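Exercise 7. Given the components listed, write out the predicted structure of the assembled complex. Treat all entries as one system.
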Amino acid sequence: MIRKHLFNIIFTVIFLGLFSLIINLYYDDVSRALYENEIFPADKGFDILACQNWRNEMRQFHVSDEDKAKQVTVLMYHRVIEEDQIDDIHLETSGDLVSTVMLKSEFDMQMQLLKNEGFTTLTLKELEAFIEGKIDVPKHSIVLTFDDGFKDNAVEVAPILREHGFTGVSFVITGVVNLYDAKYEPGKYQYLSVEDIQNTCDVFEFESHTYNFHKRMDDHTPYLIGKPDELVRKDLETSIINLDGNTQAFASPYGAFDENNIQLFQKLGFNMAFTVVPETVRPGTDIYQIPRKEVYPHETIIDFKEKIGLQDGDT
Amino acid sequence: MLLKITLVLFLFYIFFQLLYILYPLYAVSKKQKATRLNQEKGITVIIPAYNEEKIILNCLEGIVNLQYHNYEIIFVNDGSNDNTLAILKKHLDLRPTFQKLPAVKIPHQEIKDIYHSELFPKIYLIDKVNGGKADALNTGTEYAAKEIVVTLDADSILDPNALNAINTTFADKDIIAAGGMVQIKQGFLGSILKPKPTFKLKGIIRYQIVQYMTAFYLHKLTQAKLNSIIVIAGAFGAFRKQALFDVNGYRKTVGEDMDITLKMHRLIKTNKNYRNSKLAFIPHAICYTECPESFSELYKQRIRWQKAFVDCVFYFKKSFFRQLGFRLSFFFIFESLLLGTLNVFPIMLIPIALIINSNHYMVAVALFSVTIFLSIYQSIVTIIVGERFGIIYSNKHLKKLIVFIPFETITYRLMGLLFVITGTFMYFRNKDSWHVSKRVGNSQHSIPIEVRQDKHAI
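Answer.
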């Protein structure tokens, strides 16, 4: 049998060998194409625990009573786009920028201002301790947050933060994170890839902005409020798995949440949760309703100064 | 979603290609020799002829050399308006006869005259009113005296041992129909008794040689094993006469060969008497047929084939699975229809899609590479299997063949896409205006053979 088919068997082995070689060569490309527009696997993590260690080390700020902060501003951004890459998708029908899009030049200017004014960016652990009254922080302290996890955050924001020695918080919708990296296309709703997350985990703390519940029901009720509690719990749990078990903070989509949600945040072990109420944070602020001030594209640098409390000198 | 559909179809494609590559390789063991039986069954060879004056004498070359005794030849002149009848009359010394009687089972056009050859007592000619190829075949079947009916195109030359191979196959009483091996005549030099394969030919003929050998030695061989032969080529097929009667003969369509093949399958699935019956492929029953030598002739032929295929899809659409069985339906629908016809349309869209969205160009490259790789390997297996069946090229010609294969897959084969697309469109455009396909004589170079054999030899 073997003798009779020796030639055939050798032929087959060579054929199958070459064939699997070809399949192997293209396997990655095909699975990448197949994956496109798919939701991030619910059981996979971003594998960033190791490089996020820095945010667990709380700094000791030695500040005199005069220099310590009474309140801290948490800023909220979404997208940051280079001016010449502005596309229809970033504009209202009126021609103005969509409220969630910030020009890179503006953002750069704001960061430069923070740097010049000697601002310190706090980690969430430090903010938490400040709210709980455990530590004092410098008067010029600030927390930078970026919602949704757009790819431009990795391309445009991360280098600027790194340059100034700042850190930020990225609230990612973990389900829209891309398993495979792709070319940056500012004209699309393009989200971070796992690679982006891993490459920028030195400047961003990655936190949950839900897994796949950044959505509204038909009657526009946000999912967090409209969907059964059980489903909301499952969704948030999945986002925690994606974040390698990290439960430092949560930000509700649209800033919308109810009493049940807050209990859920507690139950799931989140240390803190953010809203979009434009106020400052003080010791004693409700840890599950931390206010944030959104920075809008049409605002001037003077508006920005006011927002971060530079105008009245009462930071 | 579209991508997923494409990939699923592609997996089917790979499955069929692997089947066609691996099965024949192991099934056809080294040096296949045809077995000869002493007992000869009666065979009637029907040769329909419509305006074949240029080539009608070619087939006599095969007939006079047949190494078989129990047979008869029936030419059916389907109302030709050229000199077909006159040429045959002259060369065969045809005289009117009253000895041939019909079975009166299948209706057909009116008979004008029946002739018997004085020169070759085994040759008859039926002169009838034009009714198309299917009608001519039905007429021939009606007047066939023997148990087995072989249909042969007028431009095809039988190998001397062709009928012996058919006889051997039909010794199995479960076989009701079988396809012979159709070789391209231009691909052989020398006499019919000792044909020598050549590859020193025009590209368009080379393409068809590789294609025919692949289609028969790999595809039909595999399909036969799985009892799923989709078409017994009209150029050369063999049937039990009773089975032809039981399906009421041929249907008048451009693709009467695929039609009769599917009807045979349906007979097996729906008629209790045929429950164990099978269709076969007979690699040793060879006939040599002239293939088109110009693009426009090839185009006409392939458009006709594609129209025939689409016609059968519609005609048998309700019969699939239940009346035609799972395996045949699977082959027909997945391989021939989905991969062969429907999939061709998206393939043509790939370059356009790539221009619009270049994200997935690697997927297209992947599909393309795999297709080319499998095609080339299939052609290599064709050469190996062909060699085992006795088609042995000399080293010089083999080299030409091996160089031609990769070239062919990315040039001539793409032409096939064009035929499928235009043929399908043309089917829908003038669906109701079939005309009997005119034979285009393209064999002026082949010298009409001398019919001066001893008449007792046949």
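Discussion: DSSP finds 14 helices and twelve strands in chain B. Residues 10 and 367 of chain B are 8 Å apart (CA to CA).
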